[in-house]
Amino acid sequence: MSGEHTSAPVAARVRRLEERLLGAGVVAQEQLDASLAAMLKGASPVNGARIAARAWTDEGFRERLLADANAALPEVGLSMAGGIQEQRLKVVENTATTHHVLVCTLCSCYPVGLLGPSPSWYKSEAYRSRVVREPRAVLAEFGLVLPDDTAITVWDSSAESRYMVLPRRPDDTAGWSEPELAALVTREGLIGTAAV
After folding, report:
1. What angle do CA 142, 143, 144 make, to 5 degrees?
2. How many Å apart are CA 51 and CA 187, to the nearest integer?
3. Active-site entry in 35, 107, 120, 161
4. What pTM was computed for the model?
5. Distance of CA 4 to the CA centre of its chain
6. Is 161 a catalytic residue?
7. How sure is the predictor about 8, in pLDDT bands with cuts at 50, 70 and 90?
8. 196 vs 189: CA distance, rounded Å
9. Is 107 a catalytic residue?
10. Is 104 an annotated catalytic residue?
């Protein structure tokens, strides 16, 4: 699926917006650069993987994470602060009967600090429009074929709210350490376009 998507139109729109803001004197280039640097400092899918591994090994943390992710993140040294405003994070858990997938239908809102920069396909119009209408087909194009009786829930991010998928813990990983488990987790698993 990723070959079908391109971020060129989104990137061009973002650049035009930056040029307008700079031209109108609303913001200086240095301010834009500083905001971007602050937002991306430490941004990596490793952060989301650490969260998933902790949730798989610590039932209390998993419960707190699902109840109030923003309050639970400091337990692993992370937060949703930074950038223009603090964003609300909701973590949704995949189960044997329910699978979650993330999208931002308006643009490309995404928990960058926890998952790293978003992949180009996530920003593409094709993904943003199709995953809402035909999530099972889109997931199959990513190689994730789910049983027909698995319910699929699509979560639409916004400027105020971000989502992260807590994948199901892989079988045969009892006794694995958090770092070993974290190494199994992919950015796509945290978005919901892969199992883990």
Report:
1. 95
2. 12
3. 107
4. 0.80
5. 20
6. no
7. very low
8. 4
9. yes
10. yes
